[in-house]
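[job 4471] stage=fold_predict status=RUNNING
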Amino acid sequence: MEKEDPREKNIIFNTLSPKDYLSEYLNMLTSNLIELDANRLSDFINALVNLAKNEKKIFVAGNGGSASIADHLCCDFTKGVFVDKFNRIKTQSLNSNQALFTAIANDFGYQHTFSKQLKMLASEGDGIILISSSGNSENVCNAAITAKELGLTSFSLIGFSGGRLPSLTDYSIHIPVDNYGVVEDSHQILMHIISQYIKTQNLLAN
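[job 4471] inference complete, writing structure tokens
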């Protein structure tokens, strides 16, 4: 039996006109970002900077739209933050090596696509950022469990009700909205805020 597309769970905004839909969508997006716990964001950033100072690698992973955000995050956190080798953030997407990803999925099961890579690639003290709108994706949750076993610092960006992931990671930012578009847009915005903030701090300290 074919599984239901999770995006059918999206809340629907006002469909009276595109303008009304836009207005409600943007209101939901901005209101949740404005209400974000600033201390939680600060802790998230400080932990990332500490990993960079200690020259640790940060792995990133997600499914679907979150996989694209993971790759984008690697670009912005590595190239976008770089200032003359000051606090370099060394990132690696666990989504990008299609040969390795599909070999693991084929041989061990999709639920192990990220956790197996961590066992092969990560060292104690590294970090991992896990991106999941639902917070329940099995391969992402397995990666969080493996990260703890390996002694990694773990971060999560999640949405909807939060799912299992917040309890499995050291630092978590939650966008409590039942709409994949709003959650993913929020994660993209947070990614840009974090990378630009770190870049600015690097410039000021250099």
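[job 4471] summary: The domain at 38-205 is CATH 3.40.50.10490 (Rossmann fold).
[job 4471] exit 0
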